[in-house]
Amino acid sequence: MKNTPTIQKEVAISQDTIWSKSFFIKTLLNGLLLILPTIIILFLLSLIFKFVFNLVAPISALLDKNAESHALFTNILAVLILLTLIFIIGFIMRDFRSKRSFKRFENKYLLQIPLYSTLRETISQFSGLKKMPFSQVVLVDAYNTGVLLTGFVTEIIVGDIYTVFVPTAPNPMNGNIYHVPASQLRFLDIEPEKAMRSIVGMGTGSSALFAAKEIIQDKQVMN
Question: Which InterPro entries match (predicted)?
Answer without folding.
Answer: COV1-like
